[in-house]
Each structure stands twice: as structure tokens, then as C-alpha cells.
Hints:
- Helices cover about 75% and strands about 0% of the residues.
- It is mainly α.
- Residues about 1-5 and about 15-45 have low confidence and may be disordered.
Amino acid sequence: MTRLGTLLAAALAAGLLLAGCGGSSSKSTSATTSAPASTTGTNTTGTGLTGAAKTAAIEECKKAIAAQTTLPQSSKTKLQGACEKAANGDTEAVKQVAREVCEEVVSKTSLPASAKETALAACKR
């Protein structure tokens, strides 16, 4: 359950960091964007929560993502899907969703081309 908690936290962190990434124009934001993908990729458990604990974890994860007002709806939808995948222990799927959302958010920013390129590279880590 500790590893699963880490997965859910990583999924939430991805949403929170990406929300901040959308309005920023500094390179340091792009560096923080890569942390959730890396953290998520290190957990390789194939087990997840069950029953009421699983339902509660998924709902809490979805609520935290929904509360992010700066994320586009398409990003929120992808991240909310990652909540269920994380609760099921599917770390690779969570990593992929985090990468896709990161790339989507960075692509839509008004960052200078060089900063955007750096941020997109960070999304792939």
C-alpha cells in the first residue's frame, strides 16, 4: 500500500505541477515537470488497492485533479484516468499518461521556443 500511495501521490503531483507549468515562463518549471514521470516509473508493483480503500483513493485523486483550475479539461480527463490505473498498480500506464499530459500542457504554453524544447525533453524523462 505504501508503493500505491506513492503512485497516487505522483499522479496528483503531475497534475499539480502541470497546472503550475501552464502559466510559467521559467526553465525551472520544466525541470520540475519531469519529477512525476521519473518517480512514477520507479514503482513497478503490479498490485493495487481493493474494495473501499481503492474507491476512496480513486475519488480523492480525481477530486484533487478536478480542483486544478488551470489545467485543460483534456489533461484533467487523462489524469483522472491515471488515478484508476494507479489504484490498480499499473505504473507504466501512469507514467505514459503523465508524459502525455506534460507534453500537452507544455505545447500549449507561451514559452520561448528554447524553453519549450527543454520542457518537452523533460517530459520524456
